[in-house]
Structures are given as C-alpha cells and as structure tokens.
Amino acid sequence: MLGRDRFDTTELIEVFVTAKGSIYQSDVENCLYLTFSGKTSRLSFQSLNDLKKIIDKVDLGHMCTLIEHADIEIILLKDNCFVLSGIEIIYLKEILQGAFTMFRLNHIITDCLDRLVIS
User: Average per-residue pLDDT in the chain?
Assistant: First the structure.
C-alpha cells in the first residue's frame, strides 16, 4: 500500500471515481492505482482483473447471515491484502465495475475512431 502523497497525480489518468474510492491509470509506470478505504494500492491490470474476479465471487448473502463470525473477507493478491466488511465489498465492487465499464467504453470508442480513419 502506498500513501496518497507517494505518487504524482499529474501523471495519472482518471479511470473511475466514487465518493468511496477511485482508480487512476499511469501510462508512465504501466500500472493502475486503486484508492480505497484510506489506502492506495499500485496494481497491474492483471492484478486489478484478479481482484474484480475475487470480489465478484464473494457471497454477500452468506456473509451477512453468519451470526457467530465477523462479516469480513480477507483477499490476498501478490503484493496486496484487503480486509473488507460486507459494505466495503459493495463499495469496492461498484468501483471495479465502473472502472471496467470505462475500459470497455474506451475500447469501443477507439475501435469506432479507428474505423472512421480507415474508411
């Protein structure tokens, strides 16, 4: 995890932002920065994709029905560990879904523009 002051936001491209967190892209460093729950994590695109797959598989219904256990999920990636409550999983899921929607939208727009140039 990196402190918020450890990277220069002038080099970053905003991918998706909510009140609970954000994802920025660094073309210079070829990575993404996920800011969530007061922490910033530097991730490769593959790690972000892996995190999304893990978050999408979390059974929130089951998590909320566990009375004798805490409602937390521990997610381990290569260089990152996330300890999330049920509500934090919902917030992070929103950020990840938004970011991947923006990636797809960017791809669609680029594809359309490329077709216009070729035509």
Answer: 88
- pLDDT tens, position by position, 72-96: 889 999 889 999 999 999 999 999 9
CATH number assigned to the domain comprising residue 68: 2.30.31
10 Cβ contact list (under 8 Å, min separation 6): none
The total of structural domains in the chain comes to 1
Amino acid at 35: T
What domain range is 45 assigned to? 4-118
Alpha carbons 41 and 111: distance in angstroms, whole number: 30
Structure tokens at 48: 């972000």
The angle that helices 86-118 and 45-57 make with each other, rounded to 10 degrees, is 130
Phi-psi region of 72 (alpha: psi -120 to 50; beta: other; left: phi over 0): beta
How far apart, in whole angstroms, are the C-alpha atoms of residue 66 and residue 62?
7
Distance from CA of residue 22 to its chain's centroid? 7
78 forms bridges with which residues in the sheet?
A: none
Give the containing element (helix H, strand E) for 113. helix 86-118
